[in-house]
Amino acid sequence: MYTKHYYPFQVIPVRGGSINDAYGIQYGKDRFFCKINDRDTLPDLFRKEAKGLEYISMTKKIRVPAIIDVLYTETHQIFLMEWIDTTTPTGLSWEKLALQLAGLHNCTFPNFGWFEDNYMGNMEQRNQQMSTWSNFFIECRLVPQMKIGYDQDLLEKKDLLGLQRLFNRLPDIYPHTQPQLVHGDLWHGNILFDLKGDPVLIDPAIHYGHAAADLGLTQLFGGVDSRFYDVYTSEADVAPNYREQWEIANLYPLLMHLNLFGKSYYSGIADTIHSFV
Questions:
Q1: How far apart, in whole angstroms, are the C-alpha atoms of residue 152 and residue 18?
Q2: Both 181 and 263 in a single domain?
Q3: 37 forms bridges with which residues in the sheet?
Q4: How many structural domains does the chain have?
Q5: Contact in structure between 209 and 108 (CB atoms under 8 Å)
């Protein structure tokens, strides 16, 4: 005789960033991570995030959470994925991250950009394909954020002029390189380490860009272990001026945070402009 088994079902609110409601779901021995957001405010946010995770997973370079499903109701979008139990990283964990990220960056493509626009956090991110990093960085990253900042009175004309002067220097600061697959939002909050100490990346803003976009962002908002940088710079093909490249790449997340959270991020932008023009 067949007997049905019913397991306890628990839903527990957890931290999931600043833009989503997030929950841990326990069903029997199975655990899942669930994010929920408004369906129309950020259209297809989770579908695009899932595509990014799937693409990274297919490279087999670094682990990401397994995707269960992206669901829609009349009012909400829901993202259900694997639950990752985490641990505090060791030095070896940071070295693994450096090696695996370098492997991800070795995945190349003919053009900079992506197959569709997506999001970084809760801001739309343009991904028109272009042949040079300088043009892509200017047109798809800096200019849209500069316009928002100016329209919100967070940037003045002198700031725009300074950034435009910096544009002329970008081809020399970023010599020709192949488009590299980047996570796109690699601050430390989007780097997990599983119980084996292996890295797991979450919340990508994936595109083919410049590795500096990932490496620079790791140094904002708290930074990561110095062993990560030691191994990455010895393993990857970094330019002699890689620190300059990382600093300038950070103009994009700094402008975005200026537009989202206000003037406290202005000094970082002004300092970078002053350093290079």
A1: 21
A2: yes
A3: 77
A4: 2
A5: no
DSSP of 32-61, one letter per residue?
EEEEEEETTTSTTHHHHHHHHHHHHHHHTS
Same-domain pairing of 78 and 113: no
Smallest CA-to-CA distance from 256 within 161, 163, 119 is with 119
232-248 per-position pLDDT tens digit = 999 999 999 999 999 99
pTM here is 0.94
Catalytic residue among 69, 159, 185, 194: 185
Pair type for strands 123-125 and 180-182: unpaired
Q: Which residues contact 174 (CB under 8 A, 6 or more apart)?
A: 133, 134, 137, 210, 212, 239, 245
Closest CA to 203 of 84, 98, 26, 110: 84
Q: Which residues contact 58 (CB under 8 A, 6 or more apart)?
A: none
What is the residue range of 121's domain? 91-276
Is 225 an annotated catalytic residue? Answer: no
**Which two tokens mark 75?**
């009012």
Same domain, 100 and 199: yes
Name the token pair of 102.
């370098």
Q: d(Cα 188, Cα 175) in Å, to the nearest integer?
A: 28
**pLDDT tens-digit series, residues 250-277:** 999 999 999 999 999 999 999 999 999 8
